[in-house]
Amino acid sequence: MIDANKWAIIYCPKGGFFGGSQSRWERVERCLKARKIAFDMVQSENSGSVSRLVKMLIDNGYKTIILFGGDSALNDAANCLMQEERTIRESIVLGIIPNGVMNDFAHFWGFDEDNIEETIGWLAQRRVRKIDLGCVRYKNRRGERCKRYFLNCINVGFIAAIMNLRRRTRSLLGSRTLSFIFSFILLIFQRMDYRMHIRINTDVIKKKLMTVCIGNASGYGQTPNAVPYNGLLDVTIVHHPQITQLFEGFYLFLRGKFLNHRSVYPYRTRELEMHVEPQTLVGIDGRLLNGTPVGPFKITVEKEVLNFLIPS
């Protein structure tokens, strides 16, 4: 029988030349032992193994599951937990030690990948908060009904393409800012408008748009006022700007004032429905959804469905 206080840690190595995950894990291990925290560690082999490991840990009775990884690994863990019965899910607490290519959900709470000792100290205090999850329901190309939860955001269009490139370049460059700038430069000459049909609150928008972000949290800076505990989603719709406005928007984005741009229209809602043309990229928590949804798809929020460890 597993000790209820024992942590299960899923170690997700960071790829790329600047990864350095092994030395970071050794630092985590030293800190855990110094605090006399009982734990078992399992290592994920690839991006598809996190869900399998979470399921295995649940079945073996662990009640505290910590991801030593990034947004995508956390997304996989949350989706795995949401497949469990409510009574089982409510007995389990999820936590994060940021170690991914992208760690924006951890940053939302104030966790810093460069301060492992502080992070573990906060997790050890076991301050649990029930958080909301966003949910997208859609049909895939085979006509199957699919459902995927998200902690941070869904991006549709141009920013989904940037996040996809950023994810690839971050593993090489090792810097969030440099990877975003490099990705942005690569996309200047790419397609910047996508035909979308959106129903949100009382508005119907049917036109070419640059990008849409639906945020349960900060949305990589595009939904800066969103919080994952008010039962609402923040939505940022960006109309296609002129090239000079594009650089202005990039500047405001880096300054944290993205919503001040003249082409940006913010909304707040409990649900919305979208329909996009084929080949439009859709990203969920920093990773591309497997194929563009076919036909209309619905995005909602589910309030206080996951136990999450937050800083003191």
Question: What is the topology?
Answer:
Elements: E1 7-11, H1 21-34, E2 39-43, H2 50-59, E3 64-69, H3 71-81, H4 86-89, E4 93-98, H5 104-109, H6 116-124, E5 128-139, E6 145-150, E7 153-157, H7 158-173, H8 176-187, E8 194-200, E9 203-215, E10 233-239, H9 243-254, E11 264-269, E12 271-276, E13 282-284, E14 287-288, E15 294-309
Parallel strand pairs: 1-2, 1-3, 3-4
Antiparallel strand pairs: 5-6, 5-15, 7-9, 7-13, 8-9, 8-12, 9-10, 10-11, 12-15, 13-14
Helix pairs in contact: 2-3, 7-8
General description of the model:
By secondary structure, this protein is an alpha+beta fold. The protein is 30% helix and 34% strand. It has helices at residues 21-34, 50-59, 71-81, 86-89, 104-109, 116-124, 158-173, 176-187, 243-254, and strands at 7-11, 39-43, 64-69, 93-98, 128-139, 145-150, 153-157, 194-200, 203-215, 233-239, 264-269, 271-276, 282-284, 287-288, 294-309. Strands 5, 6, 7, 8, 9, 10, 11, 12, 13, 14 and 15 form an eleven-stranded antiparallel β-sheet that branches. The protein has a four-stranded parallel β-sheet with strand order 2-1-3-4, sandwiched between helices. The protein starts with 6 loop residues before the first strand and ends with a strand.
Structural class designation? alpha+beta
Q: In percent, how much strand structure appears in the residues? A: 25-35%
| H and E order | EHEHEHHEHHEEEHHEEEHEEEEE
Helix share, percent:
25-40%
Q: What can be said about the biggest beta sheet?
A: 11 strands, antiparallel
Distance between the termini: 30 Å
The number of helical segments is 9
Molecular shape: globular
Low-pLDDT stretches are none
Per DSSP E runs of 2 or more residues, the count of β-strands stands at 15
- Mean pLDDT reading: 86
Cα-atom radius of gyration = 19 Å
